[in-house]
Amino acid sequence: MSVLSIFLFLIHGLHGHQSCPRRCDCPPGNGVVWCSWRNLRVIPFDIPHDTRVLYLDSNWIVHISTGAFRGLKLLHELHLADNLIESISPGAFHGLGNVLRLLDLSGNKLRKIDAAPFIMLTWVKLELYNNPWHCDCSLQELMKALSLGPGWAEDIVCTTATWKEYVGKTLPHLVSTGVNFCVTQQRNTDFAMLLTMFVWFAVVIAYVIYYIRRNQAESRRHLEYLKSLPVPSSSFQHKEKEVDEGNTLSTIL
């Protein structure tokens, strides 16, 4: 074998080899990558592209950034349970293939999430239980957008909610009994707008009253000033009368 052939073989071997993340285990041949209990704070960037099952559970991951799993088109299961995940970027799951069937986000710190990260994962089973969910319109819309039936969403418990009487109840139960968080939110918005208009109206009325009273005070001060001006004496008026009579007599003569 020539030197060039050996060199090309080595290059091909290096490009064909997919490394395993430093803190993970990647047993050859089964497509499973184990990264559980590794004190990871971020998702490794060098996960092999032939991974079929990825365990990232029981770490310290707080956020899932855009494209964190790009290139994992063969991934069937993604386990992210028991982390500290509080937020998920809209493009967090871009790049995953159509073979993904399970996304486990249970046991995290999720309170509110958008439907955007999951809009292309409508066929995926989501595990969302054991999160401190705040039940409101956005969570209800997420459930609707992903067509989460009672079997998939029955463990979504309202740790907090728009109204206190809903705390401790499951979201599917509330929705099935006719609770509509989006209507409640609209009512709250309408009330806020009404309150704002009332405050502005009160401010305008207060200004008009202040303006009128200020003008009245200015008028009173002006009147008092006019009254305080000295009045011409009677002798001066008598002299003016004599002058006028003299002028009249001269005119007649």
From TrEMBL:
Keyword Transmembrane appears in the UniProt entry: yes
Keyword Repeat: yes
Keywords, in A-Z order: Leucine-rich repeat, Membrane, Repeat, Signal, Transmembrane, Transmembrane helix
Record domain LRRNT: where: 19-53
Range of residues in the leader sequence: 1-16
Listed SUPFAM superfamilies: L domain-like
InterPro entries: Leu-rich_rpt (IPR001611), Leu-rich_rpt_typical-subtyp (IPR003591), LRR_dom_sf (IPR032675), LRRNT (IPR000372)
Transmembrane segments: 191-212
PANTHER family: IG(IMMUNOGLOBULIN) AND LRR(LEUCINE RICH REPEAT) DOMAINS (PTHR24366), LEUCINE RICH REPEAT NEURONAL 4 (PTHR24366:SF171)
Name of the protein this chain belongs to: Leucine-rich repeat-containing protein 3-like
Organism: Crotalus adamanteus
